[in-house]
Write a structure and sequence with these properties.
The protein has one domain. It has helices spanning 2-12, 115-119, 142-157; strands at 22-25, 30-33, 36-43, 52-59, 66-72, 79-86, 92-97, 106-112, 125-130, 138-139. The chain is globular. The strands form two sheets. The chain has a five-stranded mixed beta sheet with strand order 1-9-8-5-6. It is of the alpha+beta class. Helices cover 20% and strands 37% of the residues. A hairpin with a 2-residue loop joins strand 2 and strand 3 (36-43).
């Protein structure tokens, strides 16, 4: 039975189309690699589905001309654009309602090295997450969330945390 389940799970993850760069599993709520550092946090709301999931992305060494984020249903392959494309700049915060992960649990962070690559939809790298990482902390205030994200990214950029 384990092999059948594994086979079904493998079918749920799409292969990267030719020319679309390579995929990296982000896995944890704090990640550094592929020219970026990423941290996840949750801003709690009275109704759980209304809690906001924040994905903070900062540059880390290599140039990233644009970032696109897509939500994916891994079984039907249906996609929704969360962020169509934006320059990374010094920091990019992307907010999603926690309830949006029910139908579209996979999040893909598509990184483009040049504007031409973004316009042609040719990502250099796709960092993907299957749902909100289990290690994502929750906060009752925006100030506490911001402090955590700032410190987590500073720590991982200082050489600690998960790196590919």
């Amino acid at each position: 039975m384990g092999g059948a389940v594994l086979g079904l799970l493998l079918l749920a993850w799409p292969a990267v189309a030719p020319g679309q760069g390579h995929e990296v599993h982000g896995a944890n709520s704090v990640y550094a690699g592929e020219g970026v550092a990423i941290a996840w946090g949750i801003l709690k709301a009275p109704v759980e589905d209304q809690s906001q999931v924040i994905l903070r992305i900062v540059p880390r060494g290599q140039p990233v001309a644009a970032v696109r984020i897509e939500a994916v249903d891994p079984f039907t392959q249906k996609r929704e654009v969360v962020l169509d494309g934006q320059p990374l700049g010094e920091r990019l915060d992307v907010r999603s309602l926690r309830g949006s992960f029910a139908d579209f649990p996979r999040r893909e962070v598509l990184l483009y090295r040049t504007v031409a690559d973004w316009q042609a939809r040719r990502p250099t790298t796709i960092i993907y997450y299957v749902g909100v990482p289990d290690t994502t902390p929750e906060f009752a205030s925006q100030a506490a969330l911001d402090a955590y994200l700032r410190d987590a990214l500073a720590t991982i950029q200082g050489g600690q945390g998960r790196k590919p």
